Amino acid sequence: MRSKLFTTASAGALLAVTVASTAQAEDLTLCWAAWDPANALIELSKDFEAASGHNMSFEFVPWPNFADRMLNELNSGGQLCDLMIGDSQWIGGGAENGHYVKLNDFFDANNITMDDFIPATVTGYAEWPKNTPNYYALPAFGDVVGWTYRKDWFERPELQAEFKEKYGRDLGVPASLEELKDIAEFFQGRDIDGTTVYGAAIYTERGSEGITMGVTNALYNYGFLYENPEKPYDLEGFVNSDGAVAGLEYYKALYDVGTPPGSSNWYMGENIDAYRSGQVAMQMNFAFIWPGVEADENVGGGKSGYFPNPAGPAGQFAQLGGQGISVVSYSEKQDAALEYIQWFAQPEIQAKWWELGGYSALKAVVEDPDFATSQPYAQTFLDSMAIVKDFWAEPAYADLLLSMQERVHNYVVAGDGTAKEALDGLVRDWTEIFEDEGKL
Amino acid sequence: MTNPAIEGAAKKTPDGLARRIRGLSDRTIAWIFVAPTIFLLLAVNIFPLIWTIRLSFTDFRVNRPNNEVEWVGLRNYQRILSDPDIWATMQATAHFLIWTIILQVLIGFTLAFLINKKFKGNDLWTTIIVFPMMLSPAVVGNFWTFLYQPQIGLFNYAIAFFTGADPASFSMIGDVNLAPWAIVIADTWMWTPFVMLICLAGLRSIPDSIYEAAECDRASKWRQFWTITIPMALPFLMLAVLFRGIENFKMFDLVVQLTGGGPGNTTTLTSIDLKREAFERWRTGYSSAYAVILFVTVFGLASIYVKALNKVKER
Fold first, then answer.
1. Cβ contacts (< 8 Å) between B262 and chain A: which residues?
2. CATH number for position B254
3. In sequence order, what are the beta bridge partners of A286?
C-alpha cells in the first residue's frame, strides 16, 4: 500500500508544481496546537513546499493556551495566521464573525466535495450553520475520545481469576460504562510489580475544556441532550434530564472510586504521563495519542489495547475532537493558503498524513480495505468516529463551555451540591447566554 | 566664570535652532522635555483607564466586532456586586492575602532578625534564603505541583514522615479544604525572602547607639525588642505589607500554574476570575466593570494604608 501511495503522491506533487508554477512564492503561516500531530504536519508540509515553492511557517501553541492565543488573534483581525486549524467549536464564531473564508466556491471550482469526508467530521469541523452546505473549513484531523488500557495487566491469569471471582465475568474490554467503573475500582490501589497503581485517568481539568470533554462521554450515554431536538435552544428537561443527572453522578462515582489521588486537574498531558509511567490501568484520551502509546517503550509494542467509549443505558456515543483547516479572512495570502488546502485535500496526501500519524477524515483513506489493520488502533478509531457527538459550536461556545466547566468541575471534583443542582445551574447559565445572544 | 565645555557645546548649536530656543521661556522648555513622558503616560495608562471605565457601561464583546454596542448603564456593576460566585472569589482572595501576609511578615521578620546577628556563614545563608524569589512564579507554581503530588511529591512524604499518614491519602491541590493552604504555602515559600530583605534593611537602619543607651539603662533584650526594634522597624514592615498586599491582590501566574483556580472555585482569585471573564468568556464590558471595581478597591485600600504608613513614619 505504501509504495503505491508514494507513487501517487509524487504524481500529485508534480500536478501541484504545475499549478503553482504560475503563482508567486509566498511565506505562509499555519497556526495550530502544539502536539504530536503538528510535528507530523511539518513533515507532511515539506512536500507542499517542494511542490509549490511556497515557504511554510508554523505557529503552534500548547493546548491550555491554544484557544486564548488564537481567538485573540482572530478577534483582533491579526495577520499572523494565513491558515488556521482551529478547534471544532470555533466554526460558528469563525463563520459568523467573519474570521474564516467561506470555501464553497473554492471547493466547487477544484472538485473538492464534502461527500468524500467522514460525515461527522464535515458536520463537526466544516459546516456552519450545522447541517447546512456552508463550508468554512476542510476536515483536517479526525479525533475522538476513546480509551487505552494495559492489555498486559488485563491478561495476567491471577488478576483475571480474582476479577472473575469478584464480578462474575472476565476481565476484558468493558461493554458498558458500569463495567468500566468496576474495572477501575478493581485496579485502584492495587500492587502490580511492587508499584501501587490506580484505575483510570480521566479528564478533570478546570481551566480550559478538559472536564467537559471527559464528562460528556458519560452524559451522552446516559441520556443528556444539548437541546430539545424539536425546538432549538430549549434546554429544560434535556440538559438536566434524569438520564443526564445519572450520567453526571456516574462520572463523579468514577472519579471518586477509580482515579489516582491528586488527579483533580488532569487533561490530555497528565493522562498520558500517568499511563506511560504505569500509574493507571486505563486512560481516557483523544485518539491522537495512540501512535505515541504504540511507540512508547514502557506501554507500547502490544502492551496496550484500545476501545471506544463504552455504552450507557441511553446508547453509545463519544466526544468528538479534531479540527478543520480554514483560511483566515485577514490573510493577504489567501490564494496561496487555498493552494495549500487544495494540496492537502488530495487522497494521496491524506494517505500519507495517516501514515505520519495524522488522522485523516477522508473516506478514501479510512475506507481502504487495509486501513483497519494498518495500526492496532485503527479499528477503534473507525468505531469511535461512528459514534461521535460534539459540544456546542455556537459563536458563544466559549461562554457555554466555561459555564459547563465550572458547574461540572465544582460537582465532580469539589463535591459541591448535587448532580441535579449542577445541571439545573447549567440550564440557567446557558439560558442566560442564549438570551444575551438573542437566540431566546 | 564660564565653563568652556558648555560654551563649546553652545557654539555647536545651529544658529537657527539657537535663535528659536532663545525666544522660549524656561517653562516652555521644561514642557518640551516632559511632554513625551506625559504623552506616553496618557497613552499607556490614562487612556486605557478611561476607555475601560467607558466600556464598563456597555455590553461590548471584543469577539463580536460586528455587533452593535449597547449602553447598559450600571447593569454590569449590579450583576457583579450581586453575584455570589464573585463574592466567593473575593473571599478566596482575602484568605490568600491575609494568610500570606501574616506568614510572610512573621517568618520574614524572624529570618531578618536572625540574619542581622553576626555569625559565620551569614552571607551564604542570606543568599540561600533569597534564592526562591529569584525564580519565575510560573516555574515555582510548576514545581510545587510536583512537590504536592500524592504519589511522588516530597511535601506529602515530609508530612507522612512526621505524622505517619499515608502520603497518597491526601492531595494538597486536589482537596477543597487543603488547596487554599497549598497556594498560601507556595507563595510564602517564594516571597518570604522579599519581606526578609525589607525587614533586614529596617533592622540595619537602627543605630547601634540606641541599643547602647538602652544597655546603659539596663533595659532587657525583651524590652529593647519591643521598645526599640519593633517601633523603628515598623515603617519597613508596613512597607513590606503594602508591597505584598498589592502584589498578592493581583496574584495570577503562580496560582494558575499550581491549581488552575480549582478544585472547584476554591483557589479562583479575583485576577483569575477577571481573566476568564475578559479573555475566555469575552465579556469585555462586564469584565471592564469588574476591573474598575478591583481597581477602586486596591486604590482605596492602598491610599488608606499609605496615609497610616506616613503617620507611623512621622512619629
1. 206-207, 264-265, 409, 413-414
2. 1.10.3720.10
3. A145
Whether residues B42 and B189 share a domain: the answer is no
Closest approach of B167 to chain A, Cα-based (Å): 10
* Identity of residue B82: S
Q: Is residue B67 part of a domain?
A: no
* Across A40-44, A231-235, B14-18, B237-241, least confident range: B14-18
Residues A177 and A302 in one domain: yes
The whole-angstrom separation of Cα A377 and Cα A149 is 12
Contacts of B181 (CB under 8 A, 6+ apart): B99, B172
Q: What is the ipTM of this complex?
A: 0.71
DSSP at B206? S
Among the candidates A260, A285, A319, a domain finishes at A319
Do A151 and A93 reside in the same domain of the chain? no
Search chain B and give the residue with CA nearest A94. Answer: B63
Q: Tell me the β-bridge partners of A86.
A: A324
Q: Is residue B62 part of a domain?
A: no
Q: What is the pLDDT of residue B64?
A: 76
Chain B hits for A62, CB-CB cut-off 8 Å, are none
Beta bridge partners of A29: A57
Q: B8 falls in which pLDDT band (50, 70, 90)?
A: low
Residue B74 to chain A, least CA–CA distance (Å)? 17
Do residues A183 and A169 share a domain? yes
Same domain, A149 and A279: yes
Our count of domains for chain A comes to: 2
A331 found inside a domain? yes
Tell me if A293 sits within 8 A of A304, measured CB to CB.
yes
A298, A319, A340 - which closes a domain: A319
Residue A45 shares a structural domain with residue A102: yes
pLDDT at B7: 64
Residues B109 and B172 occupy one common structural domain: yes
CATH number of the domain enclosing A343: 3.40.190.10
Residue A306 φ then ψ, to 5°: -135, 145
Question: Shortest Cα distance from B46 to chain A (angstroms)?
Answer: 22
Cα three-residue angle B209-B211-B217, rounded to 5 degrees: 105
Same structural domain for residues B22 and B93? no
Amino acid of residue A320: L
Q: What is the pLDDT of residue B244?
A: 94
pLDDT digit string (tens) for B123-172? 888 889 999 999 999 999 998 999 998 888 899 999 999 998 888 888 89
With CB atoms and an 8 Å threshold, state whether A415 touches B169: no
Q: Which of A23, A43, A41, A24 is nearest to A32 (CA)?
A: A41
B138 within some domain: yes
Contact B263, A206 (CB under 8 A): yes
pLDDT value at B9 more than 70: no
Name the residue among B59, B174, B281 with its Cβ closest to that of A399.
B281
- Residues from chain A contacting residue B182 (CB–CB below 8 Å): none
Q: Are A72 and B149 an interchain contact pair (Cβ–Cβ within 8 Å)?
A: no
- For residue B269, give Cα distances in angstroms to A304, A340, B2, B183: 41, 44, 62, 11
Same domain, A134 and A82: yes
Say yes or no for a CB contact (<8 Å) between A97 and B168.
Answer: no
Q: What's the domain range around B269?
A: 78-314
Residues B9 and B140 grouped into a single domain: no
- Tell me: do B171 and B33 sit in the same domain: no
Percent of chain A beyond pLDDT 90?
83
- Alpha-carbon distance values, A292 to A40, A210, B136 (Å): 12, 20, 31
Nine-digit cell at A24? 508567486
Does some domain include residue A397? no
Question: Using an 8 Å Cβ cutoff, are A284 and A144 in contact?
Answer: no
Among residues A216, A387, A359, which one has the least CA distance to residue A288?
A: A359
